[in-house]
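In this supplementary section we document a worked example of the pipeline. Step one takes a protein sequence of length 287 as its only input; no multiple sequence alignment statistics are reported here. Step two produces a three-dimensional model, which step three serialises into structure tokens for compact storage. The input and output of this example are shown verbatim.
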Amino acid sequence: MSPVEELVSILDLERLEENLFRGRSPSVGWQRVFGGQVIAQAVVAATRTVDPARPIHSLHAYFLLPGDPKVPIVYETDRLRDGGSFTTRRVVAIQHGRAIFALSASFQTTEDGLTHQIEMPVVTPPEELPSEEEFAAMIMKFAPEPVKRYWSRPRPLTLRPVDVGRYLGRRPPDPRQYVWVKTSAPLPEDPFVHRAVLAYLSDMTLLDTALVLHGRSVFDPTLQVASLDHAMWFHRPAKVDEWLLYAQDSPSGSGARGFTRGSLYSRDGTLLASVAQEGLIREKNAL
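The serialised model returned by step three reads:
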């Protein structure tokens, strides 16, 4: 399968019982399960217990333990509430008999109401940025081995950072970064799939934003970096196989933690989703 077909496949959870699902991880040699995968699979588990007329509008989650990519993940779903307009679900991801992740999600009947949004930042469009192949060639001779491995293998997502200079050692003036992202091949038309993949990619590059001002990255071998929690609000339907701008900033870093925010825009400037995350950022020599 292609990387995108593999992604769609791992999001198609196996139903074990009425509220019990099982997911797997791709065989890509990761030491731990990518956080976005667990978020997306938990969203799928919750969604499969909800009326399709009620799409997800928000999620709040905690990463409890690193996931083991060599064994399946069991997702246990609690049907907390089915109200007149809103549905609430709680999902716990389990491996080796222990909870590794917990998610609460809310779903809402589609309604009309007051509408507004903040404007999308003005940035270089993706066509004027280096392709992934060109970008990889630019950084390969400077990048550490984990970065080289990441950019040299096939992936389901295509990324085009707006500020290429930070990967070449130039520090930005403030803790912000902008990344264009889309799947590397078309997705099925099902909006359920697009919402799940949007949740998957929401964990990409986000915590790295808390490090850009310091000239560091999540690949730095002297740092212990891990997502602690994750929140996401789905404002409007998304087409994830078309270019999206992920505008990110980090308002604060303190106490060995970095706080980051993200806004996902469609190419025409429509705000599709908002994200917030806090992660552990600890110097390994401080352990």
